[in-house]
Design brief:
Elements lengths: L8 E7 L11 E7 L3 H13 L4 E4 L5 E3 L4 E7 L6 E6 L2 E7 L4 H10 L2 E2 L11 H7 L2 E2 L2 E2 L4 E7 L5 E5 L17 E8 L1 E2 L2 H18 L6 E4 L9 H7 L6 E2 L2 E3 L6 E4 L5 H19 L8 E3 L4
Parallel strand pairs: 2-5, 3-5, 4-19
Antiparallel strand pairs: 1-2, 6-7, 7-13, 8-14, 9-10, 11-12, 11-13, 15-18, 16-17, 17-18
The protein binds flavin-adenine dinucleotide.
């Protein structure tokens, strides 16, 4: 029996399906919610001491965990959420915890007339998950507005990085899997609140029009290929509506796999592999997953 001694919560043998946007995934040994940075550092020390493998999760909107689960701890950052507004030399700067929901953060900033991230409105992840994935939409990536991050590494040390020290690329960040983004600093621009709201409404309307929002999904399954959207290749390969069990290539957006109700993680993995194979055979293009697949190695 581990004496966690933290303010946060530790759940054991939890099915990740309940938390994942795709609504699939088996049991994990521990699901840990640190309530603050000190909690997180204590948790890391305990896990190290107990030789328990761990990974970090935010809102689980870009991860598929296998049905067999993980004999690991998942450290979920979503209880560590707060934002602090600073004004340095007339430039609005905001510090925000990594576990803050991106959607709420963007909405709060918009209400203050702070512009920069509104094109990312409605991405369902956290700030930390967004930075790790270098999430983006409508031509803007989260790293475009980023000034710096604070991370905790696997030794429990807190390290600050400025944007200048970090290289981001399309859906790629320099943050290691062993590092947790504690907080981030963004530099915004002052803009008319009504204009920002108009942009956000437009983004939301476009998402409703293009994305299958009525079904569980993990957003885009594959990365774009040399700037060309992956859905075009999936479509060309004739995979629209293709199903493995209840895992289905969305009719509305062929880079989305949707869960029609009772899909298993295994169905999704088989569907992903089938799409890759078919797309390669028909177009010569090898698609690369944007979504992360955890626990499928064995
Ligand atoms: C309907 C829908 C629409 C989507 N639209 C978009 C879109 O337009 N653009 C886009 O880019 N993505 C999109 N996504 C994918 C997803 O929302 C993003 O990748 C998001 O940034 C993931 O954040 P998360 O908190 O859910 O991360 P998770 O899925 O929990 O984790 C993703 C990765 O980030 C790591 N991670 C999470 N938190 C931290 C942290 N604090 N420190 C270090 N590492 C961390 C995890 O270890 C994992 O490697 C969409 C998903 C859905 C379901």
């Amino acid at each position: 029996m581990i004496n966690w001694g933290i303010q946060g919560t530790v759940l054991t043998d939890v099915h990740i399906k309940r938390y994942a946007s795709m609504k699939v995934g088996g049991p994990v040994s521990f699901l840990i919610y640190p309530s603050c940075e000190n909690d997180l550092i204590s948790v890391l020390a305990i896990l190290k001491n107990e030789h328990i493998k761990y990974r970090f999760i935010g809102n689980v909107t870009n991860i598929i965990v296998n049905d067999t689960g993980l004999k690991e701890a998942l450290i979920r950052t979503t209880r560590m959420h707060c934002a602090r507004f600073n004004k340095i030399k007339d430039s609005p700067i905001v510090d925000v915890s990594g576990g803050t929901l991106l959607k709420m953060f963007i909405k709060d900033n918009a209400q203050k007339g702070l512009a920069g991230l509104e094109k990312l409105y409605w991405i369902p992840g956290t700030v930390g998950g967004g930075i790790k994935m270098n999430a983006g939409s409508f031509g803007v990536s989260i790293s475009d507005v980023l000034e710096g991050i604070r991370i905790v590494d696997d030794k429990g040390e807190i390290i600050a990085h400025t944007r200048k020290d970090m290289t981001f690329d399309y859906r790629i960040s320099p943050v290691k899997d062993t590092e947790c983004i504690l907080s981030a600093t963004f530099r915004f621009q002052n803009r008319d609140k009504k204009e920002i709201a108009k942009d956000m409404e437009h983004v939301y309307a476009e998402r409703l029009k293009r994305h299958p929002m009525d079904y569980p999904s993990s957003g885009s399954i594959f990365k774009s290929v040399n700037g060309q959207s992956a859905w075009q290749f999936v479509e060309k390969a004739g995979m629209r509506g293709f199903r493995i069990g209840d895992a289905c290539v969305s009719e509305k957006h062929t880079n989305f796999i949707i869960n029609l109700g009772h899909a298993k993680a295994r169905d999704i993995k088989i569907l992903i592999d089938t799409i890759k194979k078919t797309v390669f055979e028909k177009t010569g293009v090898l698609l690369e997953e944007e979504v992360e697949l955890w626990g499928f190695d064995e």
